[in-house]
Every structure is written in C-alpha cells, then in structure tokens.
Write a structure and sequence with these properties.
single chain; about 170 residues; alpha+beta; Butyryl-CoA Dehydrogenase, subunit A, domain 3; five-stranded antiparallel sheet; 4 helices; nucleus; EMP-2; transmembrane helix; Epithelial membrane protein 2
Length: about 170
C-alpha cells in the first residue's frame, strides 16, 4: 500500500511539474531563428516581444494563457486536497473531490492545447510582424509537454476516482 501511495504522489507531482514547464517555458512553436509561446515571441534569443493587447487575436492567446494557469493551479489544489483527504477520509471512502479537481485540471489543459492547435496558423498569419519566420517552424517541447500533462492529469484523476482509502 505504501508503494502505491508513493507512486500516486510521484505521479501527481510529475503532472504538476509538466504543467508548470509547459505554461512557463518559451517553446510552444520553435524554429531555427525564433521561438514562441503563449507569453512572448523571441527572434535570435535577444529580440523578445511580449504578447499584449496590440496582438491580433489577443483574446485567443488570453484564453490559452488563462486555461494553462488554471490547469496548473487546479492540479496543485488537487494535490493539497489529496493530502488532506488522506488524513480525514474514513476507511473505504473514495477520493472523489480530489478526482473531480484533477479532472477539471485535465479539461483545462486540454482546452488550452486544443485552442492553440486550432488557432496557431491564424495567429501567425494575422501577426506577420512577430511571426515572420514562423512559417518554417514546428511545435516545440512545451506544447508537447502540455499534451503529455493532459494524459497524466487524466490518468491521475481516474486513479483518484477508483482509489479507496485503506489502513
């Protein structure tokens, strides 16, 4: 039982770390001379431009930013609730509240990555001043980590739903 508990805790912490890296790091769209994420676009590692209200389709980027932040926060809250439920639940009860919050985190990261996947081409075409080199780019590791975090949060949410408290 102790090994299972350690695995669940490590899995959850890994999910949170993936969400933090995917949200913060600047590698959602990368190329030879540039890299971009949901916060800024950088050319030659020196010329960085923040994505702000002057950005075309700024509300789309705000949606991606907000849902990634919300996903990370919900994942951390789910972990804290899991620790509290570990000591407060009666024997035989399920970790339903933790599961619900973790699945909401999963939903948020899925929404963010899906919006970016769908709208990326339009964002780049509408902001050619920032994304002049973006046509030759590819999805970066932060974008991939966001999808991996989706899978991890989904699996951990299901684990919490199935898991019962034992001695």
């Amino acid at each position: 039982m102790l090994v299972l508990l350690a695995f669940i805790i490590i899995f959850h912490i890994t999910s949170a770390a993936l969400l933090f890296i995917a949200t913060i790091d600047n590698a959602w769209w990368v190329g030879e001379e540039f890299f971009a994420d949901v916060w800024r676009v950088c050319v030659n590692n020196t010329n960085c431009t923040e994505i702000d209200a002057s950005f075309q389709d700024y509300p789309t980027m705000q949606a991606v930013q907000a849902t990634m932040i919300l996903s990370t926060i919900l994942c951390c809250i789910a972990f804290l609730i899991f620790v509290l439920q570990l000591f407060r639940l009666k024997q035989g009860e399920r970790f339903v509240l933790t599961s619900i919050i973790q699945l909401m985190s999963c939903l948020c990261v899925m929404i963010a990555a899906s919006i970016y996947t769908d709208r990326r081409e339009d964002l780049h075409k509408n902001n050619l001043g920032l994304y002049a080199l973006a046509q030759d780019g590819r999805y970066g590791y932060s974008f991939i980590l966001a999808w991996v975090a989706f899978a991890f949060t989904f699996v951990s949410g299901l684990m919490y739903l199935i898991l019962r408290k034992r001695k």
